[in-house]
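ARCHIVE CARD
Drawer: 12
Card no.: 0347
Subject: one protein chain, sequence and derived structure
Cross-reference: see card 0346
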Amino acid sequence: MRHAISTHLFVNQRLSTALLDKILNAGVNLVELFCARQHLDYRNDDQVREVALFLKDVPLTVHSIHMPMFSDDCWGKSGPRSIIDIASPSRANRIAAVDEVKRALDLADSIPFTYAIQHIGVGFDDEWSMQKVDAAFDSLDELKSFARQRGVEVLVENIPNALSSAKKIVEFFHATHLNLGVCLDVGHANMMEGFDEAFDLLEDRIRSLHVHDNNGTDDRHLFPMVHSGGTVNWERTMKRLRTLPESVPLLLELKEDPAMNEPLDRVKEVFENLEKQS
């Protein structure tokens, strides 16, 4: 499988050309850019231009971008209005969320990428309701058209709540007849129905992956087979992931560990260990 990494690993740092160069020098030439304004400020023309110019001259390809979860630069700490919820039953909040996501999709005008990864709902406590389903449909239908005009495909990600588990995503597509692909998040599946069931439910729609580990309860984005406490069965998981089309990369979405001095060296170790799984 092709190797890729999300810049989520460095989400609390400004995304710079030096950081992208480090990723490239670590032997990774495929990335997902994480749209968080403290990291990649999609509203900042200077930063976008800097990244775009760098990418034109190096063999580093942007596979996807992760849509923003908050409109501020401090993980939503500025207040509830900063939360981006495309499934909000409030029409005003939903429209504001869609407008913010569109600002991130405008990155495609400067930085080519294939997929945009989108959450339905926000927190662990999000519950299924037809009001949220209707709101999410309106949002995704609009975003799908907006993205397509820029040569981008929107993918829905399974996240650990009652609105966006793999099973609920299938129900959502059945109810709305919305034809979208998915980004299968291995760690999130491990916290919900389990990887095997999530894979079976979503296999035909999988266009991208988020690969990380956890203890089955906390969304810790651990380095597979490097951090202790992970509960994903990587031998079985890799066997199934290898059945996916070649276009689907093994994309790591990891969380920064302050105790880890050279995380990109450990990323190499993760890829080596995963590839050794039969």
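Annotation on reverse: The CA atoms of residues 86 and 138 lie 9 Å apart. The mean pLDDT is 96.
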